[in-house]
Specification:
The complex is a heterotrimer.
Chain A lengths: L18 H6 L4 H9 L1 H11 L11 H10 L5 E6 L8 H8 L1 H15 L3 E6 L4 H17 L14 E6 L9 H8 L23 E5 H19 L9 E8 L5 E6 L2 E2 H8 L9 E6 L5 E3 L7 E2 L1 H6 L8 E6 L4 H15 L5 H18 L7 H15 L3 H5 L2 H9 L2 E2 L4 E2 L5
Helix pairs in contact in A: 2-6, 2-9, 3-4, 3-6, 3-9, 5-6, 5-7, 6-7, 6-9, 12-13, 13-14
Chain B lengths: L8 H14 L7 H12 L4 H11 L3 H10 L11 E6 L2 H5 L2 H12 L5 E3 L5 E6 L11 E3 L2 E3 L7 H5 L4
Parallel strand pairs in B: 1-3
Antiparallel strand pairs in B: 1-4, 2-3, 4-5
Helix pairs in contact in B: 1-2, 3-4
Chain C lengths: L5 E5 L2 E5 L5 H7 L23 E4 L6 E2 L10 E3 L3 H15 L8 H9 L26 E3 L9 H6 L10 E3 L6 E3 L16 H5 L5 E3 H6 L2
Parallel strand pairs in C: 1-5
Antiparallel strand pairs in C: 1-2, 3-4, 3-5, 6-9, 7-8
The chains are: A alpha/beta, B alpha+beta, C alpha+beta.
Chain lengths: 418, 161, 215
């Protein structure tokens, strides 16, 4: 726990409304350095550091930045701040506590990608975050960090906030584009990928808030500094969202690859409720449950994939043995049914059928064949849905049934004593 | 078809200003325009939507289906204030069911949500509001209320609130 | 110069096909039939029904044959166990939700895949509506039979007519085809071109004469 936070160093320290305060705490040093070394060198840094997208998909950011940089004509940068994954609140904490860092991240990404227009898409349920970022954008225009000929470097950038309107699916990048374009948030078929044809059919660099603010210390301190944190295939500082039955829920910044047990027992102060760990949901509703024996796992993208779990958006949701796990599963199933956009049949129909079966499970009224049916519905959603929502809608439920010793004859989860 | 409604003249004036600002801007400004219009009118009726469609030059049915898609847009009357209670896992573990029950009792509505008979407040059970470290959590319009206790609900949602 | 033919393998059969064609087209060249529902040759392929999914070696998920295009050395299985499970489950879920009595092709497909919609129980939610909408002299809308293939919306919008009378209500399982504030057809921008009736695969849209006298 000797780690010194960098991504959240200013949160709770600076006045989020003050550009002067931001500058006094190192703000816009990264942008000045980026302009000094030029777009190609910035992209090289992101590539060499092997920054993986922090929104959940873990796509190498350098590949996206370079691809958009190499495209011609109008192009866009989009900051994905539609954070709606249950258990996730990291981007909100950044936007409310250090909004200028997001704006600086967007400016650096736009400078590197040679884009002159950027959007910050913030979920509609975050009015405070929207106000903070709006205020930061206005201050940046006034100070010459946005607009024409930024810092005299001959580069222009306009930034607009887009307020979401209550749709989890709009965190999916192509659904988010549809939403900005004034349509229902239906995910598009891929390919084409956003770097070729994204917002308004133009090449688009879309990154999560946390990914964008990773660029700030990276540009200043370089890839070697960045790669000292975490494993080589999944490096950097990481934000973890601790919630549920822990003594100190909240945002934790620690190196990628920090052991889960350290997050729960050292940062989180241990398990509350019965005091005994029942399980952990990693990655949110779209993630996976793991059982107590697995808590020494290293929290990075590659390691978690190996054990059929997911880092996702950094959710660490803790359940003690007395938690009502059936009630939890019921809420997860209803969440996906509520948030399915309805475009593709497997998810549109499967999330509904999943709810019906999980409602029976929660009411101890499972019928013969229900578990096999649930598995087939889940496999079909995972295999045949268009986007990540449907593809992950069965994961948490499947892993809970597998790892918490669900016994159909008694209707009990072995791991949870109630 | 939802019933026709009459906007007050200050509402009409404010709406006209919004539409003037967005005139001819196209679909890319539909969501911002809907947000601003609804902030004035409370909910989006057919006449307002027709004007938005004309101002932005977006098909009528697109305005309609977009409102239908996003849960923060309403094409039916809602309460003057909206309380959104999170009932997803971290809030559930922290007792959100009790919060939902207290809200429903206070407003005289179903625990699945609804609008009080005086039209003052709408209760919604909302997907994760991203305040898991402050569970249980609810929002009243734009105001955040973390670590909320059932005993606070009468004060938060009562007549005088 | 891109090659004018590429090698691919479909169900173990190697063949040369023009690059850039869809998996569906390539399969036809190989004499392999892939079931489809939402796909219509004159319309944009949105791949919403997912009945045409196939297994593509190296791909994490199944791929929709109507929209996915072949690449050199692609190895594709159109009828594997994984593919059949997905198709059967989609058909079962659909039949448990929607009235398919006017969709004999889908019923045949359900039987071919050994699907049993009753697995979900008699209390499984169905999409039902208050009767048939007969609000104009030309056609009726019987949304109990609507599978949400999107074809009617597409022909009404950018794919054909640019009329924009049809869109959606709700989302997820509760999605419905709708007009502006559910207005009756004569009060919408509908020009009664009949294209939507022509492309409906399940009898949800029918000419009034056909509806009244059958056929």
């Amino acid at each position: 726990m000797s780690y010194q936070p960098v991504l959240t160093a200013r949160v709770g320290v600076v006045d989020p409304a003050s550009l002067k305060d931001y500058e006094a705490h190192g703000g816009f040093r990264a942008l000045r350095h980026a302009i000094a070394i030029g777009p190609d060198a910035v992209i090289d840094l992101v590539t060499q550091a092997h920054v993986l997208g922090r929104g959940g998909a873990a796509f190498p950011a350098g590949i996206k930045w370079k691809a958009v940089n190499e495209e011609h004509g109008p192009k866009f940068v989009v900051a994905n701040a539609d954070e709606s994954e249950p258990g996730t609140f990291k981007d909100r904490v950044i936007m409310e506590g250090d909004p200028f860092s997001l704006v600086e991240g967007v400016i650096i990404a736009s400078y590197a990608a040679l884009a002159e227009k950027a959007y910050i898409y913030i979920r509609g349920e975050y009015p405070q975050a929207i106000a903070c970022v709006q205020q930061a954008i206005a201050a940046c225009y006034a100070a010459g960090y946005l607009g024409e000929n930024i810092l005299g470097a001959g580069f222009n950038l306009q930034v607009e906030i887009r307020k979401g309107a209550g749709a989890y699916i709009c965190g999916e990048e192509t659904a988010l584009f549809e939403s900005i374009e004034g349509k229902r948030g239906f995910p598009r078929l891929k390919p084409p990928f956003p770097t070729q044809s994204g917002l308004f059919g133009r090449p688009t660099l879309i990154n999560n808030v946390e990914t964008l603010i990773n660029a700030l210390p990276l540009v200043l301190y370089g890839p070697d500094w960045y790669r000292q944190f975490g494993p080589s295939d999944s490096p950097g500082p990481k934000l973890y969202c601790l919630s549920g039955r822990v003594r100190h829920p909240g945002l934790v910044e620690a190196p990628m690859g920090t052991p889960l047990s350290e997050l729960i027992y050292e940062y989180g102060g241990g398990v509350t409720g019965s005091g005994e760990l029942g399980g952990v949901l990693l990655g949110g509703a779209a993630g996976a449950f793991i059982s107590p024996e697995m808590i020494d796992v290293f929290m990075d993208f590659a390691t978690l994939r190996e054990i059929d779990a997911a880092l996702g958006s950094g959710v660490v949701m803790v359940f003690d043995t007395s938690a009502d796990i059936k009630g939890v599963l019921k809420r997860i199933a209803h969440f996906f049914a509520h948030e399915s956009c309805g475009k593709c049949f497997p998810c549109q129909l499967g999330t509904q059928r999943q709810v019906e079966i999980i409602d029976r499970l929660a009411a101890d009224r499972l019928r013969p064949g229900d578990l096999a049916l649930l598995r087939e519905v889940g496999q079909t959603m995972t295999d045949a849905s268009i986007c990540g929502l449907g593809q992950t809608a069965a994961g948490a439920i499947r892993t809970a049934l597998d790892r918490f010793g669900y016994e159909a004859s008694t209707g009990e989860f072995y791991t949870f004593q109630r | 078809m939802t019933a026709a409604r009459t906007l007050t003249s200050p509402q009409m004036a404010a709406l006209r200003q919004i539409l003037q600002r967005y005139r001819g801007q196209g679909g890319a400004y539909l969501l911002p325009c809907l947000h601003e219009a609804q902030a004035v009118t409370g909910w989006l009726d057919a006449d307002t939507c027709t004007e938005i469609s004309r101002a932005l030059n977006v098909p009528l049915v697109q305005v309609h289906e977009v409102i239908e898609f996003y849960t923060l847009f309403y094409n039916e009357p809602v309460g003057r204030r909206i309380v959104r209670v999170c009932d997803d896992p971290p809030c559930f573990l922290a007792g959100s069911s009790e919060i939902v029950r207290a809200c429903a009792r206070q407003l005289g509505v179903d625990e699945k949500g609804g609008t009080s008979s005086d039209g003052r407040v709408t209760l919604e059970i909302h997907p994760c509001l991203g305040r898991c470290e402050q569970a249980p959590f609810l929002m009243i319009d734009d105001d955040a209320h973390g670590h909320v206790q059932p005993a606070q609900i009468p004060d938060l949602l009562g007549e005088g609130a | 110069m891109p090659p004018n033919e590429i090698w691919i393998t479909i169900d173990g059969q190697a063949l040369k096909v023009p690059p850039g064609i869809t998996i569906l087209e390539a399969a036809r060249l190989a004499g392999v039939e892939i079931p489809t529902l939402c796909y219509h040759p004159s319309l944009t392929a949105n791949a919403v029904c997912r009945l045409c999914v196939v297994e593509w070696r190296g791909s994490r998920t199944l791929v929709a044959a109507c929209a996915g295009t072949v690449r050199p050395n692609a190895v594709i299985l159109t009828n594997s166990r994984r593919v059949r499970t997905a198709r059967r489950t989609i058909l079962e879920m659909l039949a448990a939700s929607v009235d398919l009595s006017d969709a004999p092709d889908l019923q045949a497909l359900l039987a071919e895949y050994g699907g049993d919609p009753n697995r979900f129980g008699e209390d499984a939610a169905r999409r039902t509506f208050d009767g048939v909408k007969a609000d104009n002299p030309f056609y009726v809308r019987d949304y109990d039979k609507c599978v949400l293939c999107w074809r009617c919306v597409q022909v009404c919008a950018d794919d054909v007519q640019h009329t924009y009378a049809l869109g959606f209500n709700g989302r997820g399982f509760h999605t419905e085809i709708a007009t502006f504030f559910d207005a009756p057809m004569p009060d919408t921008t509908c020009v009664f071109c009949g294209n939507c009736v022509g492309v409906c695969p399940t009898g949800a849209l029918k000419g009034k004469r056909e509806y009244l006298w059958g056929g």
